[in-house]
């Protein structure tokens, strides 16, 4: 098994962390949350010689899923995730693009596979467990690689903060439950990347994040 690696390409007006997870040796990988600006994402894939096996979506907000259908068309790969509870968000991405002034092509997203708690997804030898973590959105999922002690948490948890819950379908109590009952028990030494800003470790958030104290 080669080393699991990650690269981040900030996309859209919201500076969302489109994340490329890849095997350092095999150069296979996945694109997580291509919200848009494919003209930034595609050159990174090409320059690093990464063969994309799938597109993974953490949740249905436009800055995470807006570019997925066009990227699927260009790369010929499946869209996997999120949980089907976010279908109502994926169905209105084109309207959201007009509302927020996000440049296209932004298309409503139809995943090839929805995910549920306990599913696994993988590329190469890298297996990720799927955790359904509602709160920021009803269908938000987290991708957890036990071997690498790493999680991609989308907009559930940030360094020093948590995801917003004032969007349609958001629920603050559900979000805190997702963090405290599903993420933090994985261990203080778990490193994470998130949908905006820098990543960190669960232990540091457990000790210092003001929203969790």
Give a description of the structure.
The protein has 213 residues and is of the alpha+beta class. The protein has a single domain (4-208), classed as Metallo-beta-lactamase, Chain A (4-Layer Sandwich). It is 25% helix and 27% strand. It contains seven helices and 13 strands. The strands form three sheets. The protein has a six-stranded mixed beta sheet. Strands 1-2-3-4-5 form a five-stranded mixed beta sheet, with helices on one face. It has a two-stranded antiparallel sheet with strand order 10-11. It is globular. The N and C termini lie far apart (38 Å).
Descriptive terms for the model:
13 strands, six-stranded mixed beta sheet, single chain, alpha+beta, 7 helices, globular, 213 residues
**N-to-C span:** 38 Å
Shape: globular
**What's the number of domains?**
1
The topology string of helices and strands comes to EEEHEHHEHHEEEEEEHEEH
User: What's the story with the biggest beta sheet?
Assistant: 6 strands, mixed
Strand fraction equals 25-35%
Briefly, what is this?
The chain is of the alpha+beta class and 213 residues long. Helix content is 25%, strand content 27%. The chain has seven helices and 13 strands.
Topology overview:
Elements: E1 4-11, E2 16-23, E3 28-32, H1 38-47, E4 51-56, H2 62-65, H3 68-75, E5 78-80, H4 87-90, H5 93-100, E6 120-123, E7 126-132, E8 141-145, E9 150-152, E10 157-158, E11 161-162, H6 172-183, E12 191-193, E13 200-201, H7 202-208
Parallel strand pairs: 3-4, 4-5, 9-12
Antiparallel strand pairs: 1-2, 2-3, 6-7, 7-8, 8-9, 10-11, 12-13
